[in-house]
Amino acid sequence: MIRGTVFIASDICKGCELCIAACPQHSLSLSRQINPKGYKYAELINDECTGCINCALVCPDAAITVYRQAKVKKAV
Amino acid sequence: MEIPVLENLEVVYKKPETLTDTPFHYCPGCGHGVAHRVLMEVIDELGIQEETIGVAPVGCSVFAYHYMNIDMQQAAHGRASAAATGIKRVLPEKYVFSYQGDGDLAAIGTAETIHTVNRGENILMVFINNAIYGMTGGQMAPTSLCGQVTSTTPYGRDPAKIGFPLKITELIAQLPGAYFVARHAVHTPNAVRKLKKALRSAFEYQKLNKGTCFIEIVSNCPSGWKLSPLESQKWIEENMFPMYPLGDIKVPGKNITAPSTENN
């Protein structure tokens, strides 16, 4: 299974929850803390992320960076 | 903004470099942010940052020039397409786009919009349709739906008194100057992918000097609609799409067809 992860810039996230609804792996949730703007921010809650970039595509604040496991080239 | 480097993992998606680091001032969940980002991604991918000139409107996106790291001009209310016409005629080798909302493009700027397209000006017009005046406090826009409650139609829009929603995208698709006309949305990841593809082809068509490309983006306004961002996405699907179906309306080389509703 392809593994991935996300980095969410918590200081510019506005907690609109669109990424949480878009995540097919249910890997995102709102934090308990608030950021300097006063919003609860989205954060990764488990390691099921596959790096599908759905969350980043719907993020209105461009706060999400997505990482994915590099493809390992098979030795011939 | 610094993004961390992680071991054994490669970055597959990051904020486009043509977007500045200024955080958006838009309300949480607003479609403007996605539209800005996708537009800048396309400019990044085509490598035309230095050759693109944008025209910002009046409305919520009036500060688009704070976020888009390209040459920008801010136009008077409704006149973005007229300003873009001037820029394109003086600098025909540049890529020029206008970015307008529904109060700007479809209300005060209707004349400019129709005549720009009718002249077949070789620009891209991006039209954000959220069926309300967002910046000024949720008043009725020409594109507001029948029965929609806004601050100026507290009992719902009554077509007998105020008229029907203006489908300006279908209207201008009839004009011979329009080359590529499409309607897209930003409510789901797939819709965003399709929008990006359409914007990319619109910039590529601009090189061919064939006419105006016009892309309507059905967006949301959680604050104006008095809904949460997630509820507003549902509201788009339930109420906006029956009136504003997604899809290509005029594609180069094909006759005008009614937009299909399959893509919703």
In short:
The complex is a heterodimer of chains A (76) and B (264). Chain A is of the alpha+beta class. Chain A contains two helices and four strands, in the order E-H-E-E-H-E.
What does it look like?
The complex is a heterodimer of chains A (76) and B (264). Chain A is of the alpha+beta class. In chain A, 13% of the residues lie in helices and 30% in strands. Chain A has helices at 18-22, 54-58; strands at residues 4-8, 28-34, 40-44, 64-69. Chain B has one domain (31-250): 3-Layer(aba) Sandwich (Rossmann fold), CATH 3.40.50. Chain B contains ten helices and eight strands. Chain B has helices at residues 31-46, 64-67, 80-90, 102-108, 110-118, 159-162, 168-173, 189-206, 222-225, 229-243, and strands at residues 9-13, 52-56, 71-74, 95-101, 124-129, 178-185, 212-218, 247-250. In chain B, strand 2 (52-56), helix 2 and strand 3 form a beta-alpha-beta unit. In chain B, helix 1 (31-46) packs across helix 8 and helix 4 crosses helix 5. The two termini of chain B are 35 Å apart. The model of chain B has no long low-confidence stretch (mean pLDDT 92). Chain A binds chain B through residues 4-5, 7, 9, 12, 14-18, 21-22, 39, 51, 53-54, 56-70, and chain B through 1, 3-4, 6, 8-16, 19, 23-24, 26-34, 37, 186-189, 192-193, 222, 228-230, 233. Strand 4 of chain A pairs antiparallel with strand 1 of chain B, so a sheet runs across the interface.
Spell out the blueprint of helices and strands.
The complex is a heterodimer of chains A (76) and B (264).
Chain A: E1 4-8, H1 18-22, E2 28-34, E3 40-44, H2 54-58, E4 64-69
Antiparallel strand pairs in A: 1-4, 2-3
Chain B: E1 9-13, H1 31-46, E2 52-56, H2 64-67, E3 71-74, H3 80-90, E4 95-101, H4 102-108, H5 110-118, E5 124-129, H6 159-162, H7 168-173, E6 178-185, H8 189-206, E7 212-218, H9 222-225, H10 229-243, E8 247-250
Parallel strand pairs in B: 2-3, 2-4, 4-5, 5-7, 6-7
Antiparallel strand pairs in B: 6-8
